[in-house]
């Protein structure tokens, strides 16, 4: 590296070393507060660099309620607007210049470019289907942060239970059921049909019809339907549609619920392009070779209950 760009540890370099180190530790707690507990679901590792730099610039102010709320908005705009994927150098600099004053609501502060540029459309939910997309990971975290509870254990999926319960993302309408009922690939694998669940709950679901697996969950958990319906609601899953095994109703209602969740996170209105009949995001070809999907297919071929990790 030194052959390309000679590096010297000047006094200025060393002055910022410890504050930046502490800022990255702070960033880990910031992410935990946003229910990002797992490196597999870290949307943009690159965005941690400006986040840490902003913490150094803001100092103790970064933990004030209003400032922290605006930092969250900026962070979600970067993720859900999918703005930190590539060619981020200019954005990085602008955020360092613009976010501190805006976060503090200082006179004359401008809305950061990342917040201005963030855009999300309803149809994007259809094409978010694997954790390769930052927005997919972001919505997963938003669901956890919205108060999602496990359907069998009834426990909040917080940092402790996330590990203890071996939480991962799984299908609501199981893949096997969808294949048996001719549900198209786009909707079957969309984030709209997925939610964080414990490993045990997912094994109980297997590939069963929702109307059947909900009865099994009630029996195993020793609770009535009303209690389970309440737990479904913490995942923004419509209990009536699920109990009727009505995939179309489930998909439409949860899509709108997720749109509202995104709007709350980014502080901006989401364009409902599907509702308007003009979808911007389409899947011309569904990739059956995607590793997250292939794993489920192998389970189906083997004839076992699918462990719907996606």
Task: Characterize the structure shown.
The chain is mostly helical and 310 residues long. It has two domains: 11-117, no CATH class; 124-302, no CATH class. The protein is built from 16 helices and two strands. The longest helix has 23 residues, at 11-33. It starts with 10 loop residues before the first helix and ends in an 8-residue tail after the last helix.
Summarize it:
The protein is mostly helical and 310 residues long. Helices cover 54% and strands 3% of the residues. It has helices at residues 11-33, 48-58, 65-80, 89-104, 113-117, 124-127, 134-145, 159-164, 175-180, 185-188, 199-205, 210-221, 225-233, 239-243, 247-266, 291-302; strands at 168-171, 194-197.
Strand segment tally: 2
Strand-pairing-aware structural class: mainly alpha
Strand content bin? under 5%
Measured between the Cα atoms of the first and last residue, the distance is: 38 Å
Major sheet attributes? 2 strands, antiparallel
């Amino acid at each position: 590296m030194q052959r390309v760009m000679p590096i010297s540890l000047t006094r200025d370099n060393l002055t910022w070393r410890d504050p930046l180190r502490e800022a990255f530790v702070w960033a880990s707690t910031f992410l935990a507060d946003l229910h990002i507990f797992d490196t597999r679901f870290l949307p943009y590792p690159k965005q941690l660099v400006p986040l840490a730099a902003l913490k150094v610039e803001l100092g103790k102010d970064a933990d004030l309620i209003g400032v922290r709320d605006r930092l969250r908005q900026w962070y979600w705009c970067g993720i859900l607007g999918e703005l930190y994927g590539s060619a981020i150098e200019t954005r990085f600099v602008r955020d360092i210049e613009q976010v501190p004053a805006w976060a503090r609501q200082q006179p004359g502060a401008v809305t950061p470019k990342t917040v201005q540029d963030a855009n999300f459309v309803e149809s994007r939910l259809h094409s978010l289907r694997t954790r390769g997309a930052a927005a997919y990971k972001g919505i997963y975290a938003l669901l956890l942060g919205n108060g999602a509870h496990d359907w069998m254990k009834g426990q909040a999926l917080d940092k402790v239970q996330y590990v203890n319960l071996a939480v991962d993302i799984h299908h609501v309408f199981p893949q096997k059921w969808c294949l048996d009922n001719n549900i198209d690939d786009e909707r079957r694998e969309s984030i709209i049909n997925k939610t964080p669940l414990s490993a045990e709950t997912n094994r109980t679901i297997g590939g069963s019809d929702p109307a059947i697996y909900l009865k099994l969950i009630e029996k195993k958990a020793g609770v009535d339907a009303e209690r389970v319906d309440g737990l479904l609601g913490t995942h923004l899953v419509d209990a009536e549609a699920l109990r009727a095994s009505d995939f179309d109703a489930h998909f439409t209602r949860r899509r709108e619920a997720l749109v509202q969740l995104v709007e709350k996170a980014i502080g901006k209105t989401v364009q409902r392009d599907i509702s308007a009949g003009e979808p911007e995001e389409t899947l011309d070809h569904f990739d059956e070779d995607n590793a997250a999907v292939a794993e489920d297919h192998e389970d189906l071929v083997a004839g076992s209950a699918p462990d719907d990790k996606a």
